[in-house]
């Protein structure tokens, strides 16, 4: 398995490229602000051919370059329907002050081919299977993507802005809700094995076990999940 990532633009949102191996087809997760140049470098270095762009949620720091990447490579974008409108109007996901600061004449459009994600769906792309989990709370349409474990690697979760090392996504922007994100953490993160690798939307990678032991927000979500061990 080949997973390459880099923080994009002034928001430092992590963009990931995922492929079975070098020289194969790949998927791109969350191409954010100014991601195109670094993304092209990764694709060229590993001789990869994109077949899809996957979007964990519609905030601008994660979808800024979705349309140009899809257009240049003639590939579809996948996003949850609750966040689809943010592809063409990302300002709806921001506070009024931030919207006024960011959008000085900028316009965004949907890619030509947009496909909608569903909870529990299994995407079969680039010779891989990725499980989609709907995880609202940061936005209404937030999702995570999971690569199930193999003999070579443990489970891998691309968590977007649901779960970070030591923290979780903010819930004070339009579409955010704190009790809802706690329920998403309880339902979609706490049941996962401790060795599950978490590749977040910002910051360093972590594991479910580390976050279960140290992240205060997962501790708060644990009562919602009920017992996870024992009989």
UniProtKB/TrEMBL annotation:
Family annotation (Pfam families): Lactamase_B
UniProt domain Metallo-beta-lactamase: residue ranges: 12-202
Q: Which domain of life is it from?
A: Bacteria
SUPFAM superfamilies the UniProt entry points to? Metallo-hydrolase/oxidoreductase (SSF56281)
- List the cofactors: Zn(2+)
Position of the signal peptide: none
Which InterPro entries does this UniProt record tie to the protein?
Answer: MBL_Glyoxalase_II (IPR051453), Metallo-B-lactamas (IPR001279), RibonucZ/Hydroxyglut_hydro (IPR036866)
Keywords for this protein: Hydrolase, Metal-binding, Zinc
Q: Spell out the Gene3D superfamilies in the cross-references.
A: Ribonuclease Z/Hydroxyacylglutathione hydrolase-like
Q: Which PANTHER family match?
A: HYDROXYACYLGLUTATHIONE HYDROLASE GLOC
* Protein name from the UniProt record: MBL fold metallo-hydrolase
Q: Source species, please? A: Planomonospora alba
């Amino acid at each position: 398995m080949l997973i390459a990532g880099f923080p994009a633009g002034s928001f430092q949102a992590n963009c990931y490229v995922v492929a079975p191996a070098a020289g194969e087809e790949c998927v791109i997760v969350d191409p954010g602000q100014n991601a195109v140049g670094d993304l092209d470098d990764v694709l060229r270095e590993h001789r990869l051919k994109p077949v899809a762009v996957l979007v964990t949620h519609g905030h601008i720091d994660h979808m800024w370059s979705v349309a140009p990447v899809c257009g240049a490579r003639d590939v579809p974008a996948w996003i949850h329907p609750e966040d689809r409108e943010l592809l063409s109007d990302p300002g709806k996901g921001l506070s009024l002050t931030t919207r006024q600061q960011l959008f000085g004449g900028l316009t965004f459009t949907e890619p030509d081919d947009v496909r909608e994600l569903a909870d529990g769906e299994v995407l079969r792309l680039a010779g891989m299977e990725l499980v989609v989990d709907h995880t609202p709370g940061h936005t209404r349409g937030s999702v995570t993507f999971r690569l199930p474990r193999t003999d070579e690697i443990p489970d891998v979760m691309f968590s977007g802005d649901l779960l970070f090392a030591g923290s979780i996504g903010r819930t004070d922007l339009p579409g955010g809700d704190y009790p809802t994100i706690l329920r998403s953490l309880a339902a979609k993160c706490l049941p996962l094995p401790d060795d599950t690798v978490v590749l977040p939307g910002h910051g360093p990678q972590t594991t479910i076990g580390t976050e279960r032991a140290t992240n205060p927000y997962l501790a708060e979500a644990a009562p919602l999940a009920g017992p996870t061990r024992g009989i």
